[in-house]
Amino acid sequence: MTTPSIDAHVRLGTHPSHRSAVVATVSGTARHIAHAHLSVRGFESVDEHTLVMVRIDHEEPYWAERAAQALTAEGISTEIAPGLREAIDEEWTWADYPMPWCTRQEIRESSDEAQKIYDDIRHGRLVIHAHADDSGTVVAVGSYRDGSSVALHGENHLRTITETFGSPAEALADFERLHGDTMRPGPAPMTDVERQAAEARSTLHSPSPLEPDPATQRTEMVPAYAADPADHNAALDEFVTEHDDWEKWRTWSDGTTHLIHESQTLRAELVHETNPRETAWTFAAYETPVSDRMWHLTLTGTTPAPLLKTLLSRLAEGDAWETAIGSPTTEKTVTEATRPLTDAGWKHTIEGRWIRWETTPGDAGVQFDAFAAQNPSALPTWTLWAGPSIDRPTWALHASPYTPAPLLASLTEDLAHGTGTRMKPAAPHRPARLKTTPTGLPQATNPHAASRSL
């Protein structure tokens, strides 16, 4: 028997700012039916046309696909956007999951139970009476409004019910006996994952009136080092799409993505949602897949788009990443790496162990640490930066001693001669105002005076 068609259409796509969340857009005269179906499958309403699914286990793509299958079976046409389809098909790694022997489906089932507990707490169905620290793990005790009391262990996708009690008094007494030393009233503070989930739900609402109007902004050309920060997530996705010899892997927490070359000797790591001035990218090269790291390079989240583009381009070429293992940085290496700065007339100074090249205004520079070059340590040998000073940079790039000179030269070429774009608020538009002669005053008879009164 053919399922009757319903005049409702659902489009499922990725959230604009939360990597794993899914947004559903409904249309049609019977969209309320699709809205109801989505609501019982983990989506929450934003408005009559929009719903969002945000989970603490980052399994939204899987559950969105299940919802799409159910909607189709009910006669509701459903579309899955390409970006979401890619997320559905993407393989996960479970490196930091505490039970590595579990299959992906078993992990998914376990985390779904944790999701239900989280939803019960968030919607007030489960009231948390107290929490405590149990050797570094958060534990809690609470009661369901319609029945039993429970003891909880863990947070986020690892939260489980460890014991059930007949009454709140019984549950609290047992909890105090076990965790009286660290017991605190009420629920534990929100975790980073819970906070990000809350932000993902709230950011789909109408923009704040304090947000800048795009119409009042304009783009200007600036030196590459002063350009707007790169969209790191978009750059990573574009790189993987264009280079099939690289593979992308996410960690369980969804906070980090790894890029690995098919040779296993070139690797990159992007940490999502970092503080803008903290390390976002780490690039590294190895002699063999199991050898020690030959060299590495890091850059902060505010690194301009032109420099990240250059870095990824050289990463794809491969030859710029080769280096002689164990060969110390020489004067020739330094000269080759900084020739673009010299050619551009950047100010060159030597202060003890540090050799620097800076712009005349001092708003960007490159520093070479001769001590770190000969004595590899936690200190970077190379620092590229822009901002008020090297100690308070807007962005910074750090490289270890054996970073290839051709790669550094490509980056310093960008600093010296490259350009990029930057959004700058435009001057506010002030409409012309018509000046009128106050009532009761004589009208000007001089035609020039009359024209000046406008």
Automatic annotation (TrEMBL):
Domain DUF317, first and last residues per copy: 262-320, 362-420
Transmembrane segments: none
Region ranges (Disordered): 184-216, 418-454
One Pfam match: SPDY
Compositional bias (Polar residues): 436-454
Full protein name: DUF317 domain-containing protein
